[in-house]
Amino acid sequence: MPDPEPRNVIEKFFNSVANVLVTPTVWVREKIVEPNQKNYPWYHQKFRRVPTIDECYTDDVVCYFEADAQYRRDRLVDTNILSILRTRFEDCTIYEAPDNLEKCKHIWKQYEEAQTNWFIKYGDLGGYHNVKSAYMKQKHRMIWERRHGPVGSGKKIEDQ
Asked: For the chain, what is the radius of gyration of the CA atoms?
């Protein structure tokens, strides 16, 4: 539906001023900005997966840096997932006020499992850690489980 004709001279003047201001802006957006934008079908930038720290050579500094950057991105994603699960549980307990212990149990189990997995991977590493210290933690945990059984299951009894 085209714009109706202006009723008087003042309306014609304001329409012409608006066209002078709007037309170049629309042209720049449609002809320059939108064709040069990166359009992703997802909400965040996807980085290619790089070799992990165990696949890097000992003298390959670039590989260490890339593995550390990927580790930090993965930790940030895992931390945000944990935050989202916690928020869902809190919202569920508020919404399902008297019966929240029964109705929010499945969300609480998901949150506890994610929290345990997060702590297994990133916990007890301190404030300033990197991918190498996390890899060493994983290696030490695997050695422990091989010698003593799963962590938290008690001591493995040696058979004679």
From this structure: 28
pLDDT digits (tens, 9 = 90+) for 89-129: 999 999 988 888 889 999 999 999 999 999 988 888 888 88
Is 45 within 8 Å of 69 (Cβ atoms)? no
Residue with tokens 């003298």: 59
Whole-number Å distance between alpha carbons of 29 and 6: 27
Average pLDDT, the chain: 87
Question: Over 90: is that where the pLDDT of 36 sits?
Answer: no
Listed as own residue / partner, the contacts of 92-95 with beta carbons closer than 8 Å and 24 or more positions apart are: none
Please state the φ and ψ torsions of residue 47, each to the nearest 5 degrees: -95, 145
What are the DSSP calls for the chain, one per residue? -PPPPPSSHHHHHHHHHHHHHHHHHHHHIIIIIGGGS---SSSSPPPPP---GGGS-TT-HHHHHHHHHHHHHHHHHHHHHHHHHHHHHHHHHHHT-TTHHHHTHHHHHHHHHHHHHHHHHHTTS-SS--HHHHHHHHHHHHHHHHHH-STTS-PPPPP-
Q: From 139, 151, 131, 25, select the one nearest 72 (Cα to Cα).
A: 131
